[in-house]
Every structure is written in C-alpha cells, then in structure tokens.
Amino acid sequence: MLIFITIFSVILITWIILLYIRKSLWDVVHRNLLALEDNFEGKIIRKSFLASPVFHGSINGSQITLSFSSAKSRDGRITYLNISYDLPTETSLTLSAKKWLEEQKAGELNDYSTLENDYGENYIIRPISDNKVIKLIENPILLEFINEFRDLAYYFSGKTGILCEYIVDQAADATKFDHLKERLILIEKLTKAIQ
C-alpha cells in the first residue's frame, strides 16, 4: 500500500509541477502581449489560466489576431505562432520553408520556385506563373523576410488577407514587443510589395 501511495504522490507532484510550468510560460507570454495592447488597439483573450493568450486588435486600421497552436512532429511537439492579418492582396501566393513542407509531407508541388536565404535555407514560393510573383522575387524585401523568418512554416496572402505561421522554440522570447513589432512590420512590407 505504501508503494502505491508513493507512486501516486510522485505522479501527482510531477503533474502539478508541469501545470505550474505551463501556466508560468503563458503568464510571461501574456505579459509580453500586454505591450501590444499598450501600443496598438486591441485586447488579450485568455480562456483559462492554462490556456495560451490570444491578441486580437487593429494595427493601422487592419484587424490582426495572434494566437498559438501546436502539433506533433518526429522530434516532439512544435509550437507555432499564428498571425492572421487583414491585409488583402490582389495576387494570391504561398511562401513556405522547404524543410517544413517536406516534414508535413505536403505532396508534389507544382508551379513553384525555390529561393535561398543568406543562411543557405530554402523556401518555396508559388505560383511562379504569375508575373507579380516573378516581380516579387526580385524585390529585396523578400530576401529580408526569409532572412528574418528562418523559422517560417508558411506565409499565405490573398484577397481575404494574410496568414503567417512560424515555429517558436521560446514563446517568451518570441513575444517580446520589439521582436514582434519588427516581424509585423516585415509582414506588412512584404504584403504591400505583393500588391
């Protein structure tokens, strides 16, 4: 009986510690996102003390939502920061990290071009048959974007706005205001270059 109580106690204490660590992480992220509230119109939504915070607001009149998601991978769980931004473009395009696409087993890719950043990492942009996309490839903002977003999963732009998702290893660092602001500015610049 004593062994059963000991094992149960160890499991319970471990579970409580893991809950505390998760809560502490999301508390730090929540505090970091408060800077977005201070600098832009918006509000942080958090459904429970263990849930990840979501920022929903407006930057320069465009609606934006920042949220987190996670997925299993062969190396464990991956956390993504998702940005949904109401910045529509006439041209639809997808920009993805080639490595991420291969891990997703995205299937055969058609009508694409491969780009390389200054760190030797490859990205796929499609559709390459669109003249505006061909012109974008020559724009220096695209290289600046893929140099900064080395953790990119995908960036999609279209008539409904943009979706951008990238991997975050350290959510607390990734949500620091200066870092987020720099990335949001780059997303806006790239989106305007697509017009």
Short structural description:
The protein is α+β, with helices and mostly antiparallel strands and about 200 residues long. It has 6 helices and 9 strands. The chain is globular, with a radius of gyration of 20 Å.
Describe the model.
The chain has 195 residues and is α+β, with helices and mostly antiparallel strands. It is 43% helix and 31% strand. The chain has six helices and nine strands, in the order H-E-E-E-E-E-H-E-E-H-H-E-E-H-H. The protein has helices at residues 2-39, 98-104, 131-137, 140-148, 171-174, 177-194, and strands spanning 41-45, 54-59, 62-73, 76-85, 93-97, 113-116, 122-126, 152-158, 161-167. Helix 4 packs antiparallel against helix 6. 21% of the residues are buried. The mean pLDDT is 86.
Low-confidence stretches: none
Distance between the termini: 70 Å
Largest sheet: 9 strands, antiparallel
Question: Number of domains in the coordinates?
Answer: 1
Number of strands: 9
Structural class: alpha+beta
Architecture blueprint of SSEs:
Elements: H1 2-39, E1 41-45, E2 54-59, E3 62-73, E4 76-85, E5 93-97, H2 98-104, E6 113-116, E7 122-126, H3 131-137, H4 140-148, E8 152-158, E9 161-167, H5 171-174, H6 177-194
Antiparallel strand pairs: 1-2, 2-3, 3-4, 4-9, 5-7, 5-8, 6-7, 8-9
Helix pairs in contact: 4-6
